Amino acid sequence: MGAVAFRKLSKAYGQAPIVQAIDLDIADGEFVVLVGPSGSGKSTILRMLAGLESVTGGEVLIGGQVVNHLQPRQRDIAMVFQDYALYPHKSVRENLGFSLKVRGVDRAEAERRIGEAAEMLGIGHLLDRRPAELSGGQRQRVAMGRAIVRRPQVFLFDEPLSNLDAKLRGQVRTEIKKLHQMLGTTILYVTHDQVEAMTLADRIVILRGGVIEQVGTPDQVYGNPANVFVGGFIGAPAMNFLRCSVRDGVVDYAGQVLLTGRDDLPDQVLLGLRPEHLAAGRGQGIDLSGVVQVVEPLGADTLVHVDLGGALVTARLDPALRPQPGSRIDLTAAFANIRLFDGRTERALPCP
Amino acid sequence: MATPRPSSRLRLYWLTDPSDRGLAVMLLTPLVLLVGLVVVYPVARLFRTSLYNHALTSGMPPEFVGFENFLLIAEDPVFWRVLGSTAIITAVTVPGALLMGLAMALMANLPFRRKWPVRLSLLIPWALPLAFAGLIFAWFFHSEYGVVNDLLRRFGLQPVIWFNSPFWSMAAVCLTIIWKTSSFMALILLAGLQTIPRSLYEAADVDGAGRWRQFREITLPLLRPAIVVALIFRTITALQTFDIPYTMTQGGPGDATATLAMYIHENTISFLDLGYGSALAVVMFLLSMLMTAAYLRMIRARG
Question: Where does the record place the ABC transporter domain (chain A) (predicted)?
């Protein structure tokens, strides 16, 4: 029913390509997050799916039907906009019910669905207010309610949390996830925030410059990034990268031998390490040594920025360690946690 | 600094706090003087003159007559005729210019690749002097050489001798006023249209509303403040209509298209009867105030 597919989907403004031949299949009921920096084409893809943006090339399919030529209202989708786009002169009730009124749903049924959605979102007491009389979080909920009452095949979310403060963002994020578990409707969700992507998605699509860099579950894209961009984009603090040279199967970082016996590698590699995979001490696999620059205690753990003599790496360490800025520190990482990337193409290489 | 005060007392703050009073007076004085000089004084003078018998042709000094001028106005059949014409012009050209202006604003708000030619053509009628517009259109409506009659003939219709009939004269004047004034209406409404976020239309698209429905349910309600402002401006200028009938028809035939402003002009400038002319001007002033108050009440009642 609510399956979505893109076939060589492209968008260009004049000569400038925005989205370049995207292929993607989204199963019915799946929660897919499109994530990428600004200009990556993620919002354009969503808007092409909604029918708000024309398609330059390729096809958009909803429920197996090509919908390229259909108006937004004919596509059986509902969208939550970044600025919520609530009708300012209508009450919350009228905002929720507008699509039903337009579609000629009878009043009793409309009232029932409005009540149901309001109940689900905890906005029942706000139905007679105008949007201007609501807080940011309440408006966000009304915007979601407006989508829910429609019972569409697909929900589209365009950066829905970016106008909320940090605390509220976390709260509403949880609610969106709960909502998906309750309704089971396909969701396409656009964000530039990798935390939202990781926490919400069944599958994450990472975009850059109108091209898909990687598609996978949160675990896959976090654990095995397809390239340096994905490794750096997903996860905060970002993955550390060490530029190493390879000679006779020996991987060498600034004179330190890190790996041996790798005859399959190109002569330049980037060695990727997640901050939490670095531990203080020696002997777990590869060993590094450097000078502590900055220490950032987070409570549960402490981020330590270490200068390895040129490259800066961030390690997530036990807060009990309390390293002093300026002091030397030894870091070690297990072989299993090392990721290797081609030094030129920046693509992932087979790992040890 | 002073302790926070309840907001109800804030307005009198500068009068009651001695430390700030001097500054407040200093800041307000130039503005008060300016408004007094260019607004309050002339209006006060007008009201005063309206209470005098002050005809320059009589050779007599001004004589205080109280409200006699106003009693004369009430019995003056010409006054009632020009008031009627002014009312017709107002009743026809205000909605006419609003509709035309709205159509033009909606057109100018379309996503043209180059916006400036559209905006420029919108502005041209507004930039043209009123008297100039009157003269051009008098030529357009000329019974022998005018383009309007030429068009009528080409479509096989009877040409109209516009300025011989009270009805067609009035029609020509109203059409000219609508043409001339709708561009200013369009300008105000275009500014209003541009404050409506595009995402509202996108949300309505997704919600399933068609173009007409979007116009009725989003554009019109959100444009209401701009419409009221445009209506206030247009109504006041309509009540004061002078240049276009003056240059087009000189009020004719007879006084069929003479307006209140033209009658004031005639009494004051042609007959040099300053007392009677001022009294007529006071009536116009009060009418304008009344209409504005009515519109403002309308916004407050619905908003």
Answer: 4-234
The CATH superfamily of B72-302 is MetI-like (1.10.3720.10)
What value of ipTM does the predicted structure carry?
0.85
Q: What's the per-residue H, E or C state across chain A?
A: CCCEEEEEEEEEECCEEEEEEEEEEECCCCEEEEECCCCCCHHHHHHHHHCCCCCCEEEEEECCEECCCCCHHHCCEEEECCCCCCCCCCCHHHHHHHHHHHCCCCHHHHHHHHHHHHHHHCCHHHCCCCHHHCCHHHHHHHHHHHHHCCCCCEEEEECCCCCCCHHHHHHHHHHHHHHHHHHCCEEEEEECCHHHHHHHCCEEEEEECCEEEEEECHHHHHHCCCEHHHHHHCCCCCCEEEEEEEECCEEEECCEEEECCCCCCCCEEEEEECHHHCEECCCCEEEEEEEEEEEEECCCCEEEEEECCCCEEEEEECHHHCCCCCCEEEEEEEHHHCEEEECCCCEEECCC
Residues of A in Cβ contact (< 8 Å) with B222: 88-89
- Give the count of Cβ contacts less than 8 A between chain A and B: 57
pTM of the model: 0.80
A337 backbone dihedrals φ, ψ, rounded to 5°: -95, 0
Nearest-CA distance from B197 to chain A in Å?
8
Q: Would you kindly state where each structural domain of chain B is located, as residue ranges? A: 6-36, 72-302
- Measure the CA–CA gap between A255 and A245, rounded to whole angstroms: 9
Interface residue of B198, B206, B211, B299 to substitute, partner A, most A CBs within 10 Å = B206
Count Cβ atoms below 10 Å from residue A328 Cβ, excluding itself. 11
Helices (H) and strands (E) in chain B — how many of each? 15, 2
> Token match 């937004």: residue?
A72
Residue A335 touches partner B, C-beta closer than 8 Å = no
Residue B88: Cβ-neighbour burial (10 angstroms; 0-12, 13-18, 19+): middle
Nearest to A85 among B202, B208, B222 (CB): B202
Q: Is the omega angle on the peptide bond into residue B125 within 30 degrees of 0, that is, cis?
A: no
A325 preceded by a cis bond (ω within 30 of 0)? no
Contact A87 B217 (CB under 8 A): yes
CB A20 within 8 A of CB A29: no
For every one of its 303 residues, what pLDDT tens digit does chain B have, with 9 covering 90 and above?
Answer: 445 444 545 555 555 666 677 888 888 999 999 999 999 999 999 999 999 888 888 888 888 888 889 999 999 999 999 999 999 999 999 999 999 999 999 988 888 888 888 888 888 888 899 999 999 999 999 888 889 989 998 898 888 888 889 999 999 999 999 999 999 999 999 999 999 999 999 999 999 888 899 999 999 999 988 998 899 889 999 999 999 999 999 887 888 999 999 999 999 999 999 999 999 999 999 999 998 898 888 777 655
- Subunit contact A79:B200, Cβ cutoff 8 A: no
What whole-number distance in Å separates Cα of residue B98 and Cα of residue B154? 30
CA distance A225 to A217: 11
